[in-house]
Amino acid sequence: MIENSRKGYLIFAEVFFCLFVFMKQFYLFPSGSIGIGDVFLVISAIIVFVVQMFIVKEKFLYTIDFYWYIFIAFVVLINGFYFFKTKNIDFLKYIIYWLYSTVAIWTYRKLAGKQFFDKVVKVCEINIILQLLIYCFGLGRYYHEGWGGGRFMGTFNDPNQCAFFIFTMLLFIFMCQCHKLNLEFGIFFCLSVFVIYITKSTGMFLGIFIFGLILTLQKVISIYKNSAVKKIWNILFVVGILLICFSIYKVWPSENFDITQTDYTLMSRIQQKIWKFSHGNLADFLYDRSAERLLQYPQNLILGAGEGYFERFPLGDFVNKISPGVFVMEFTHEIHSSFFEIWYCYGIVPTVILIMWLIKNIKACDKKRMAAVMAILIESFFLVNYRQPFFWYILVYSSSLGLVYSECRK
């Protein structure tokens, strides 16, 4: 809605949205169920809906989300088909997840505006500090490996959830402040890196590493273009490459690497990943990402298998292709890649439609904000996090602001 014409109508919706952002980190029930934060988001959406319908007469849906709604229609049709075919309620659950994301995006777009985003930024900063304090005071939960290693997960049910939450809080702060980065952002960047470090999440480490790398490259390239001493920068570039190669050499695990005999840090988990893939093969890599079904049941990449009831895809003969002693054999659920999970579950046509929607939103980003967008997209290739609203909030941030400015010009 037009920021200058709110007249207080949406103040309560903004309050409940900020409560959603704050309460989202508190998991009282199993993952996948309704959380306290989700309730506040729904209340915010209801308020926006009432204001939209009866007080402020504006466009209900935005044309930029046309492809999104087509994709959601495919989600309902495909999952609905498999529900009636198998009678498995999982498919209905995933329909609800996608409808929830739709409501989350719609509400976010309707509230979008600089003043609103500034309020959300403050909550994001509080969230990062809170998880850090919970760790410092020894109040957080821990995930314990079978052999004794522990990973901090704060108020979450899973360390990767905690790390992703912190990661997206930082990215949202950046999206709002990228044109005026200061010491305060640097502090929150360091705090976020620390919290992600103690969760020992390799996926989120990859994400924040890529984010930091892109930011650094953007700055270096900008300085390089305006520099009169390019030879010095060329030398520094070569030195940087050599340092990266040396770091990889130092991190590379030994032939007999055993994580149970280490101090179990983020670095040792990275070494474990390297050891697994250096001693395994393509089948091992696919199995580690629960992506073996891409080869076993490739027909589902065309029309989609529906999302849910993953027990339909047993390992079968694929188990014979996995290197013995490298991976623990156990059944896992979704493919650990947002892109391939969506493609496999919904097929080519819906996936292409979703990509078209993403492209339209990403085109609205300027070069500075692209660092956050690229970081979360690359990270999402290795984890499934598209059920979290902030995953989408990062991607549609710029286009949402663009809608506000276009309405103000009318």
TrEMBL record:
Carries keyword Transmembrane? Answer: yes
Q: Do the record's keywords include Repeat?
A: no
**Residues spanning the membrane:** 9-28, 34-54, 66-85, 91-108, 120-144, 156-174, 181-198, 204-221, 233-252, 339-359, 368-384
Q: Which domain of life is it from?
A: Bacteria
Q: Which UniProt keywords apply?
A: Ligase, Membrane, Transmembrane, Transmembrane helix
List GO molecular-function terms, semicolon-separated: ligase activity
Identify this protein by name: Lipid A core-O-antigen ligase and related enzymes
